[in-house]
Design a protein that fits this description.
- By secondary structure, the protein is mainly α.
- It is 49% helix and 9% strand.
- It has twelve helices and nine strands.
- The longest helix is centred in the middle third of the chain and has 33 residues.
- Helix 3 crosses helix 4, helix 3 packs antiparallel against helix 7 and helix 4 packs across helix 5.
- The strands form four sheets. The protein has a three-stranded antiparallel beta sheet with strand order 1-9-6.
- The protein is globular and about 65 Å long.
Length: 393
């Protein structure tokens, strides 16, 4: 039988180092910059309060038990429409495919976000091919628009993530421009990566409600803040301090990335030291666990407790003890967007719905660390119904 290997990504994640990676990060930083979040917020807010809120209302009708991860997956994928992915499939289809692909990855990857093994399930291979085909359509269309704008002496908005991905992949980092086909190929891989990464935000909010199931007072306090605080302005969103504390604590207890690696490099004339250990091997790969660091009593008081108040104003965790987005030159450039989208989503949902955990006691939701990326186990079931403010409130 013919063996088929399906390439998932040689883009943002796999092009991990060198001038090509550095150039791509520099270009994409325009989109993910903290200073760009206000403009991105005002672009995403009407989408969440308009068509996406309408979809949620249609799903729950007057009250319904839903699987939270499934619905949030559609929501976060739909945000991509605001970011230049207008022609890239429908949100529900992407969300379903991404979830199934991620379920298969731990068993089928030879390296992180790299290649599917030859024994990949036919259905998974089919879904990846389908997503890549649609991603190519979107990339080709954006490339066509960029060419037209360039001829007019104009440029795309900094909110067009897909347009910036095209620009970032136009060069290989050595001053040489790639062909259109090469640019599109790299961009397709990055689109796949973006879709997989958006699912991380879905897992994070799902994990938050799992943790809040044992902390009803924290959930009550968070929902009260979300309902009492107007987000008509970006300043309003930033004033959701207790909600942010809850998210930060969730990122500590349930980091989506549970472990990572770095390559240790030092000059030959230097003595290699790392964490008090002598390193005598050039290029040694060091493996570390964010999960272990986040749960270590060395750095955290009562580390297993969900305690948003530990994030009091001015609190700064000890260096390298808190790394949900990694740190340094390899840190996640999307961390500001992640926090903005999570708070925006929670705000709109809380102001429109009552949400109550309805977990199956025989199959309580949990997560596994079998892979570097957290995977949820069992359904995160929620009873959701329209929120009815008390009269006079």
């Amino acid at each position: 039988a013919k063996e088929e290997t399906v390439k998932i990504s040689s883009g943002i994640n796999a092009e991990y180092g060198g001038l090509g990676w550095a150039l791509k990060r520099k270009v994409m930083s325009q989109f993910f910059a903290k200073t760009n979040m206000e403009e991105l917020f005002y672009a995403c807010k009407p989408h969440m309060e308009g068509p996406e809120l309408k979809r949620w209302k249609e799903v729950i009708n007057n009250g319904k038990k839903i699987e939270l991860h499934d619905q949030l997956a559609i929501t976060f994928t739909s945000y991509l429409k605001v970011m230049g992915f207008h022609n890239f499939m429908n949100s529900e289809k992407i969300a379903t495919n991404v979830f199934k692909i991620l379920e298969a990855l731990p068993k089928q990857l030879t390296s992180w976000f790299s290649y599917l093994c030859s024994d990949a399930k036919e259905e998974t291979v089919k879904m990846i091919h389908e997503m890549r085909t649609e991603a190519k359509k979107a990339a080709m269309e954006i490339h066509r628009r960029k060419v037209m704008l360039n001829r007019k002496g104009e440029s795309m908005t900094s909110l067009n993530m897909l347009g910036l991905l095209i620009e970032a992949n136009n060069q290989n980092g050595h001053g040489k421009r790639r062909s259109v086909d090469e640019t599109i190929t790299y961009t397709i891989d990055d689109i796949m990566t973006v879709c997989l990464v958006m699912d991380n935000l879905v897992k994070q909010i799902s994990s938050l409600f799992m943790l809040l199931n044992d902390e009803p007072e924290c959930q009550r306090k968070m929902f009260a803040e979300l309902r009492e605080t107007s987000i008509d302005t970006f300043e309003g969103l930033n004033s959701l301090k207790y909600t942010e504390k809850c998210i930060l604590e969730c990122l500590r207890l349930r980091p989506v990335l549970t472990r990572g690696t770095r390559t240790y490099i030092f000059k030959k004339t230097e003595i290699g030291r790392f964490g008090g250990y002598m390193i005598n091997e050039q290029g040694l790969r060091v493996v570390f666990s964010e999960y272990v660091l986040h749960h270590s009593p060395k750095y955290w008081v009562d580390p297993e407790k969900f305690d948003p108040e530990r994030w009091y104003p001015g609190f700064v965790p000890e260096m390298f003890s808190y790394m949900p987005f990694f740190v340094g030159s390899r840190g996640c450039i999307g961390k500001h967007m992640a926090m903005m989208l999570m708070k925006l989503t929670l705000s709109v949902l809380a102001r429109n719905f009552d949400m109550t955990q309805d977990f199956d006691p025989e199959k309580m939701p949990d997560f596994t660390q079998e892979f570097a990326v957290m995977r949820l186990i069992n359904n995160v079931d929620m009873w959701v119904e329209p929120y009815q403010p008390q009269q006079g409130c």
